[in-house]
Amino acid sequence: MRRQALSALVLALLLGCSPGAPPPDGTARPTGAPGTATHRSGPPPDRGGDGDGDGDGTTLTARLPIARYSYSDDEYLAITAAELILARDCARRYGVTYDPPQATAVLAPPFADRRYGISGAREAARWGYHLPPQPDPVSDSGLSATEQLVLYGRRATGETLRDTTHLGRRVPAHGCLGEGVEKLRKPYEFSAGADAASRIAARSFVRSRQDSRVRAALAEWASCMRKNGFSYASPMEPLKNPAFLRSGISRQEKETARTDIACKRRTRLLETWFEAEARVQRTAIARDTARLEQLRGLHLAKVREARRIVAGADRDREAGTDT
Description:
This protein is mainly alpha-helical. The protein has helices spanning 8-14, 73-92, 103-106, 121-127, 145-152, 154-157, 175-185, 191-208, 212-227, 251-267, 269-287, 289-319; strands spanning 164-166, 169-171. Helix 2 crosses helix 12 (289-319), helix 4 (121-127) runs antiparallel to helix 10 and helix 5 (145-152) packs parallel to helix 7. 40% of the residues are buried.
């Protein structure tokens, strides 16, 4: 059985959205950028370490209160795996054998946490302000025309308005890959809840910067940077430095990044900012608890269904009845 690959275009389809746009059920995966939703909820990590263990600050964003209303990485993998299984089953209706890749091969790892600028000592020492390299997307160059038609639907033909057919049967508009996403998404859509969670995540970041304790910590961080020969008013500024946006990572960039982290630790900027934003989020969540808890309930139900689909496929594979 040949393992089929997926193009970068289909990655967006599998996520149920166009790049950068949150889908209606709130499944968008957080990146740690300012204003994005997050994954896991809980207290800030211990900051007493040296950046090589629990003391690293790379999970601060993922611990904000609004994380309760998103998916964990493991849950997101289960959903993606289930979508691929549904796409496989759809393709069989058209006589196409689709052996989907592992979900881990389809989904890129989450980006480094940049909500408050860089936060990990190891990340800073190795990559400076650059994002760690992402794996190359798998290619769909090995797909036949028929396989592309069945998997991609109208995308394969360029006919955005005309229905496509194969063996006398209408192919879903977005192909079997799209059908796999839609079948698992539709029963659990809740745009109002997803919008509320995204709005809280975005506004809380802006409002937290206005907190007097955060402003004071930012000023101390900037002073610390100046004493070490670097002039930046905010931890976001080095991320936009044109010299740090080039392909190579210079010694200056790494030195700046290491100093950035050292000053954050000295001033407790990350903890102060996290705690301020968490307060803002808790207040906002309390005002919209019913809608957000409805969203969470739908998320949990979707994950349960995804895991049921994956478990069923695993049983069929072990019994030799998955063909």
